[in-house]
Amino acid sequence: MSNDSSNPNIVILGAGGSGSRVAHHLSQSSPKKYNIILVDQRGYYIHWPAMIRMVVAADHHIAENALIPLDKNWVDGNGKLVVGKVESILPAKGSTGGEVVLQSGERIPYAILVLATGSTFEGPLALPDTKPETVQWAQDWHKRIDAARSIVLVGGGAVGAEMAGEIKDIWPEKKVTLVHGDRALLNDTYPEKFRQCVAQGLSSRGVEFLFSDYVDTLPAPGESVTTRNGKILQADLVIPTRGGKPNTDLIRAAFPNTVDAQGRVTVLPTLQIPGHPTVFAAGDITSLPEQKQVAKYPSHASLISSNILALTAGQAPEKKYKPQIEMILITNGKTGGSAYVGLLWGLMLGDWFARTMKSKELLVGMARKALGYS
């Protein structure tokens, strides 16, 4: 790959589980006469499965190892990382291509664009943009949780369930109540039996549940919580654990007819966005009918990379994405958890499997290896 500024750019927005992999594949494949530019506001990879434990436990080891530099993601130096926040995307009128404008004022033209902007989070997972700030952020949240005798978690998806287990690992005596809008934890992608199994594991540790109810407004610290159904919960600390929202505001502004009512980007089977043949989307932001999980995104990245290489060779992208089987592993602290694999009749696995595969180490080593670190 040439780094000639006169060559057209392939620009990838977002260095998460899909964007970082697209950058790696293209770096390895070296499309001729194209520059590869990866843009991210942080400049390092966040291994999200480890972040809940990092903020609950203020674990310096996790902060050191799960916020992973991107310097080894390039093959033979083929590529460039630009650290900065994107202010706008400006598609060229009447043609393909366009440019990305950063808050710094820098303008980066693109011939091919990959949208991999991921999710935005609230509460403990709304991480700052630098490693030192993130370490301090985790310490501050640890202190808040430590000082609270009773805690309400708002949202019973994977984030809420795993945070409940992490809190109970360190403070088994704390009162933890999890409020969830559905009739059981997670969502109906997963069978009822598995959802009940996850709840039972947490219940055995003293976690309490309020199902089919919502907290619409987070109270001030120390104030009681009133749910949508009028239930009053006493809590020293209320933590939003509702999971991420697709980070697509800038995409909606640039490509207004491609973002649906849920904030997700409509994609063709080739993962191109309709009406824009040189723009691709991957990861959390896509409207693909599958649960949003980082384990699926290497497949997104591999397909997009192949289709981009076809474009750069003057060919039509032909590879089409097929949604993957659903599987999930919910940790319950460091030593337990529950897993579901959507094969055959649906396989369910318990504490030993969860501890061996994820709970103990949170897949940090696997993430580091994928980015070139041991």
Automatic annotation (TrEMBL):
Instruction: Note the superkingdom of the native organism.
Output: Eukaryota
Tell me the protein family, please: Belongs to the FAD-dependent oxidoreductase family.
* Pfam families registered for this protein in UniProt: Pyr_redox_2
User: Top-down, what is the taxonomic lineage of the species of origin?
Assistant: Eukaryota, Fungi, Dikarya, Basidiomycota, Agaricomycotina
Q: What is this protein called?
A: FAD/NADP-binding domain-containing protein
Q: Name one GO molecular function term.
A: flavin adenine dinucleotide binding
Q: Which residues form the FAD/NAD(P)-binding domain?
A: 9-295
Q: Which organism is it from?
A: Dacryopinax primogenitus (strain DJM 731)
What keywords tag this UniProt record?
Answer: FAD, Flavoprotein, Oxidoreductase
- SUPFAM superfamilies with a match to the protein in the record: FAD/NAD(P)-binding domain (SSF51905)
Q: Please provide, in alphabetical order, the Gene Ontology terms of the cellular component aspect for this entry.
A: cytoplasm
